[in-house]
Amino acid sequence: MASPSFDQLDGVIWYNGEFVEWADAQVHVLTHGLHYASSVFEGERAYGGKIFELNAHSERLHASAKYLGFEIPWSVEEINQACRDTLARQELIDAYIRPVAWRGSEMMGVSAQKNRINLAIAAWEWPSYFDPEERKKGIRLDISEWRRPDPATIPCKSKAAGLYMICTLSKHAAEDKGYADALMYDYRGLVAEATGANVFFIRDGVIHTPTPDCFLDGITRQTVIKLAKKRQMKVIERAIQPEEMENFEECFLTGSAAEVTPVSEIGPYSFTPGSISLTLMEDYDKEVRA
Question: How far is CA 178 from CA 9, 142, 253, 281, in A?
Answer without folding.
Answer: 29, 9, 18, 24
